[in-house]
Specification:
By secondary structure, the chain is α+β, with helices and mostly antiparallel strands. The chain folds into six domains: 59 residues, Helix hairpin bin (Helix Hairpins, Orthogonal Bundle), CATH 1.10.287.610; 239 residues, 2-Layer Sandwich (D-amino Acid Aminotransferase, Chain A, domain 1); 96 residues, Beta Barrel (OB fold (Dihydrolipoamide Acetyltransferase, E2P)); 77 residues, DNA polymerase, domain 1 (Orthogonal Bundle), CATH 1.10.150.20; 104 residues, DNA polymerase, domain 1 (Orthogonal Bundle); 67 residues, Rossmann fold, CATH 3.40.50. Helices cover 36% and strands 18% of the residues. It contains 25 helices and 20 strands. The strands form five sheets. It has a five-stranded mixed sheet with strand order 2-11-10-3-9. The protein has a five-stranded antiparallel sheet with strand order 14-13-12-15-16, with no helix packed on it. Strands 5-4-7-8 form a four-stranded antiparallel sheet. It is globular. The structure holds adenosine monophosphate and zinc ion (ZN). Adenosine monophosphate binds next to strand 3.
């Protein structure tokens, strides 16, 4: 055998053993023999560097160093999941989706693994890249580290593998490995790791991949993504990925009905305690990919999936003090300061109390023994008070009357749960909070400034609002503590670069109450530029004495104009108009305009956008020539609204092939105009 053939045969053999050991849980040789063969391969590779291959089993030992993790934009967005906490929640979900899809629905039940989500990319059967979830739109490239995880196949098996695809899953640290790592830490006198999840995600960001290789990480994969994949259901995709060599969890099950989903949940609520890794719930997914496509996504999560969270662990502890936090909008949040207590592996010292009503409802008092609950990512919350243990001298809680930061009397508007500090311009956390929001990743994404720097800049009197950022110079910021020439330059360059950030993100960055990312996008799309958004309708003529004349105020007219935009409600309209009429805010805004920020949609964003379908509502159903996604985009680009279920408000039903009978019947009953794909295309 030539060295090349020898290397090849060793690689094939070791790959098979890896698969048997890590995926199939069924090793056929001893660890000792495996190590011997691996040593042999490493030696051969060392003397024949010309045969280097990034997918060789020898790369598992790591060695590559990553100094900075590159940011990578996800080709397919990594969504979050909606949560449910009861059987009723799940039943409601089924009722909702049954209004949208036709026919019976089968569900794939999977466990919800508590680790670090990951997206793996494969090309021509080879592993090429691993990216963390990040914010869902972009994550970090952690390829070198993930390559060392033994259950991530570097080379796939079989001959039906798509040229290019992505697979998503979770990198977890099984309990066994976690405890071993902690034993090791203990012998070295080091702090123990808190929980497997944080340790798993921390591992992905280590610079030295050889360190990662030593950690007993595992990778469970449950979701294929890509174009033209040879699958029709979620359950098949699990079977297929398993065949290709991925560790697709075998606990998954196909349920014929929501009742079978409940059985799965009840079973695992108990059985999960025996699992080698941590799970915090079940993920229920509509099995048919066609039905999934029909259901689509909300801004955050697929409508075709639902996480069910097992009841969270509860502990009791003492409430030592109630303090108050001021948010960027002036909203006050009461915070419970607790005697430190351990819940699900983390120490909890603080919990949110939400608002005055919540405190009153629970009659919660300093000195009380309280029950605290923590589920997954959520901030711990207090769910009850142990009245039997209440100290005798206990006094009812009196809610704060003044802002803890600036001492302004707090106000509470009718019908609102939250108290507010109205001192917008003089209350430090509000000033800082608004600037922090403005520079944040989803808004202006200004590199080179963090929350801490904002604090320094405000305290030094260099800025008091976000428009001031655009006047900052390197010389001004250099005297700040811990500010080097390089970081000062980075900061000023970052601010300059933000002038190219698209209009909708500028709008989001302004921090108008209730104008989140999605609303900002809608407003930008509707008005197309800042002037149109700000323009107030003319005032009614004063001298008109006609009793029946239109005397609606400009503010009310503007609100009407705003609420006419789909999905913009009263609350949003109210705060937008308030913002437009606020002289101070308008001054700041005009300084942003002069600084050169994007105040209108770009030419590319405007391309293909018309008002042709303005005010018309469409439902698409069935299979089409073009993808449903493109079809929806066409509707929206032309000013129409694409909704998922038929109602009396629907104007057109775009009818594809194999449309479900119940939708058809409903459309006929309501007398909705049905058009073909071709007819629709002619409309636009
Ligand atoms: P959350 O972080 O609570 O929004 O939940 C969404 C996350 O759950 C996803 O990003 C995944 O990382 C994770 N997850 C764990 N198990 C599954 C599963 N079987 N299917 C989908 N997502 C899962
Ligand atoms: Zn204040």
């Amino acid at each position: 055998m030539s060295p090349k053939e020898q290397i090849q045969s060793l690689r094939d053999e070791l790959r098979e053993h890896n698969y048997n050991y890590y995926i199939n849980d069924n090793p056929t040789i001893s660890d000792f023999e495996f190590d011997k063969k691996l040593e042999q391969l490493k030696m051969l590779e060392a003397s024949h560097p010309e045969f280097y291959d990034a997918t060789s089993p020898s790369v598992r030992v790591g060695g590559e160093i990553t100094k900075n993790f590159n940011t990578v934009k996800h080709i397919n967005r990594m969504y979050s999941l909606d949560n449910s906490y009861s059987i009723e929640d799940l039943q409601d979900w089924e009722t909702r989706i049954k209004k949208i899809v036709d026919g019976d629905i089968q569900y794939t039940c999977e466990l919800k693994y508590d680790g670090a989500s990951i997206s793996l990319h494969y090309e021509n059967g080879k592993f090429v890249q691993a990216v963390t979830r990040g914010d869902g739109n972009q994550g970090d490239d952690v390829t070198a580290n993930v390559r060392t995880i033994k259950s991530v196949p570097l080379q796939l098996k079989g001959d039906d593998i798509p040229a290019k695809f992505e697979i998503r899953g979770e990198i977890v640290l099984p309990w066994d490995g976690f405890h071993k790592m902690n034993e090791e830490r203990a012998t070295q006198g080091l702090d123990l790791y808190r929980n497997p999840r944080n340790t798993a995600s921390g591992s992905l960001k280590l610079q030295d991949s050889a360190e990662v290789a030593k950690r007993p990480l595992d990778c469970l994969l449950y979701q294929l993504a890509g174009d033209d994949l040879p699958i029709e259901t979620q359950f098949d995709s699990l079977t297929l990925s398993r065949k290709w060599g991925f560790k697709a969890p075998k606990e998954s099950k196909l349920a014929q009905s929501i009742e079978e989903v409940f059985e799965f949940i009840n079973y695992w609520d108990i059985a999960r305690k025996e699992l080698p890794y941590e799970t915090d719930g079940v993920v229920v997914k509509v099995n048919s990919l066609r039905q999934q496509e029909e259901l689509g996504f909300t801004a955050k999560a697929p409508k075709w999936a639902m996480a069910y969270k097992f009841a969270a662990e509860q502990v009791s502890t003492r409430l030592e003090e109630i303090t108050y936090q001021v948010g960027r909008t002036g909203a006050i949040t009461p915070v419970a300061n607790l005697a430190p207590v351990e819940i699900s592996g983390t120490t909890v010292k603080r919990a949110s109390l939400h608002n005055a009503d919540q405190i009153e409802k629970l009659d919660i008092r300093v000195g009380d023994e309280v029950y605290v609950e923590k589920g997954g990512e959520i901030i711990p919350k207090i769910i009850a008070v142990e009245l039997s243990k209440r100290p005798e001298n206990s006094v009812p809680t009196v809610y704060a009357t003044h802002c803890p930061e600036c001492n302004t009397p707090l106000i509470r508007k009718d019908g609102e749960a939250q108290h507010f500090c109205s001192n917008e311009l003089g209350c430090a956390p509000q000033i800082k909070g608004r600037i922090e929001h403005f520079i944040s990743r989803k808004a202006m994404d200004i590199d080179g400034i963090g929350a801490e720097t904002v604090g320094q800049l405000v305290d030094a009197g260099l800025i008091s609002n976000y428009a001031d950022l655009y006047d900052l110079t390197v010389e001004q910021v250099l005297p700040l503590e811990r500010m080097a020439q390089k970081s000062a330059e980075n900061m000023v360059n970052g601010i300059e670069a933000s002038k190219q950030v698209p209009f909708e993100r500028v709008l989001f960055g302004l921090g108008i109450r209730y104008v989140g990312e999605t609303v900002a996008k809608k407003l930008a799309k509707h008005y197309k530029n800042m002037n149109a958004l700000l323009a107030m309708p003319p005032a009614p003529e004063k001298e008109n004495l006609d009793l029946f004349a239109d005397v609606t105020s400009p503010a009310d007219k503007k609100k009407e104009e705003l609420t006419a935009i789909p999905e913009i409600g009263e609350r949003i309209a109210e705060t937008v108009v308030e913002y437009i009429l606020d002289q101070h805010q308008q001054q700041i805004l005009s300084r942003l305009r002069i600084a050169g920020l994007q105040f209108e949609l770009s030419a590319t964003q405007l391309e293909g956008q018309t008002d042709k379908l303005q005010g018309k509502s469409f439902v698409i159903s069935g299979v089409f020539e073009m993808s449903r996604k493109d079809l929806k985009k066409l509707i929206e680009d032309n000013g129409g609204k694409a909704s998922s279920s038929i109602s009396s408000k629907t104007d057109y039903l775009v009818r594809g092939e194999n449309m479900g009978p119940s939708k058809l019947e409903k459309a006929e009953k309501l007398g909705i105009t049905m058009i073909s794909e071709q007819e629709f295309l002619e409309m636009v």
